[in-house]
Structure formats: C-alpha cells, structure tokens
Design goal:
This protein is α/β, with parallel strands linked by helices. It has one domain: TIM Barrel (Alpha-Beta Barrel), CATH 3.20.20. It has 11 helices and 8 strands. An 8-stranded parallel barrel has the order 1-2-3-4-5-6-7-8, surrounded by 7 helices. Strand 1, helix 1 and strand 2 form a beta-alpha-beta unit. Helix 1 runs parallel beside helix 2. The termini are far apart.
C-alpha cells in the first residue's frame, strides 16, 4: 500500500515517510521535481520503513541513468505503448552487456560512492522496473509489454486512460473501470505485479481482490489541500456564527 508524494520537498516527504506506508512514489512527471529534489527525497525516505519509487517524466536513457545513480532502485516510467518500448526501457536500467546503462558508479550514491565493491555486478538484479500503461494504445499492446523479460510490473494510469477513452476527469466511468479491472487481471495472470492509484477505497479493494500488488490510495497534495480547505471553511463558519 502506497501514497503519491508530490510536494517536491524533502521535509514534506519525511512527514509522509513517517506515516508507515509500504512505499511512496516521488513524482517527477507532474510534480515540480528535478534531480536534486528527487535525491533529497530519496535520502529522507531511505531512512524510513517506506520504499521509495521514482516516476520520471519520460523514459529517456539519460534521466534513467541519473536517477539510478542517485540511488533509486524502483522506477515507474509513464506512457508505455509497445513491447519494443518496454524492451528498450529494460536495456536502459541494465549495465552492458545486457543493457546500455552508462558506467559511472564511482561517482554514484547508488554504490555508496564505490563502497559497495561488487555494485556493477549486482545492480541489475536489484532494480525494479515498473511501466505505466495509460491509454488505449498501451492496453492494446499489454500482452506484448508483459512478454518482455525484465519488466517487473505494470501500473495502470486511470486518469489518462479515462481521458483517452473520452471521459476526461472521470476515471470512475464504468467502461474505464472495466478496462482497468481487465488489465489488472491480465497483468496478474502473467506473473508480473499489477499497480494502480485510486482515491476510491472500494475500488482499491476491488483491485486488491483482482491481484493488484502495489496500490496507492492517496496523494499528499490532495490530502493537504482537503484538510486545509475543510479547516478554513470550519473556521470561517465559526467566525460568522459569532458575528
């Protein structure tokens, strides 16, 4: 069970890390994060019991290389639409001769700055690659994506999927939810890990029942805004009642 971390701030990330979630996703796609802010959040989350996941804005080789060197071990790559793209991403997270990740671990936090003597030999097996399928093209290619060795899990993005299916802003549309449920069942049947983000606890339970193994049920920005707005409204109502 996880939560989205989108405040792009290590202090806020540390508060989330103290909550007890199994994993926390540092969002580099829609939150204003850069390499240094991601690094700072990795450092504070690593000190907790929560496992950090980093979502990049796009699956570019140089971005993947930098974030892996910064110490991320689990990546979520958005907008994957083909088996060919999935295979290329697998190569990007692996060292030669099996991949194309650049070798510079002596400079990297990932190797504890060369304090892990066999880092180059053992790093590949410690990387978890999660791919995000979030449109009709990705769903059509889901079997091809699942067939790629080295893909550890597939996350279904309901918001973008809803938009692509003509229901922008409404991921709870019945045909969207049906597509998500079908995808989760197919991912689970393949032996890969299915994932989802949903603020609907009933739907989260449905996804768990269908075999989802990494499920996010909240977003820090949403939680903060909801609480702040509710408190502001309650406070103003109390003032108005007195006056």
């Amino acid at each position: 069970m996880g939560c989205w971390v989108g405040m792009a701030d290590p202090y806020a990330a540390q508060m989330s890390a103290s909550a007890g979630f199994d994993w926390l996703l540092i969002d580099g796609e829609h939150a204003p994060n850069d390499l240094r802010s991601i690094l700072a959040q990795l450092q504070v989350i690593d000190a907790s019991s929560s496992h950090p996941v980093v979502r990049l804005p796009i699956g570019e080789d140089w971005m993947i290389k930098q974030v892996l060197d910064a110490g991320a071990q689990t990546l979520l790559i958005p907008m994957v639409e083909s088996g060919e793209q999935a295979a290329d991403l697998v190569r990007a997270v692996r060292y030669p001769p099996f991949g194309k990740r650049g070798v510079g671990s002596a400079l990297a936090r990932a190797s504890q700055f060369a304090a892990i003597p066999d880092y180059l030999q053992t790093a590949d097996e410690q990387i978890c690659l999660l791919l995000q399928v979030e449109n009709r093209a990705g769903l059509a290619a889901l079997d091809d994506i699942l067939a790629i060795d080295g893909v550890d899990g597939v996350f279904i993005g309901p918001s973008d999927l809803a938009a692509d299916m003509g229901h922008i802003g409404n991921p709870a549309a019945p045909d969207v939810m049906a597509a998500v449920e079908d995808a989760i069942k197919r991912i689970a049947a393949s032996g890969k890990a299915p994932g989802i983000l949903t603020l609907n606890m009933d739907f989260a339970k449905t996804c768990l029942d269908l075999g989802a193994t990494f499920v996010a049920t909240g977003i820090d920005v949403t939680l903060f805004n909801t609480a702040m707005r509710a408190l502001a409204k309650q406070s103003k109502n109390m003032r108005d009642a007195v006056s």
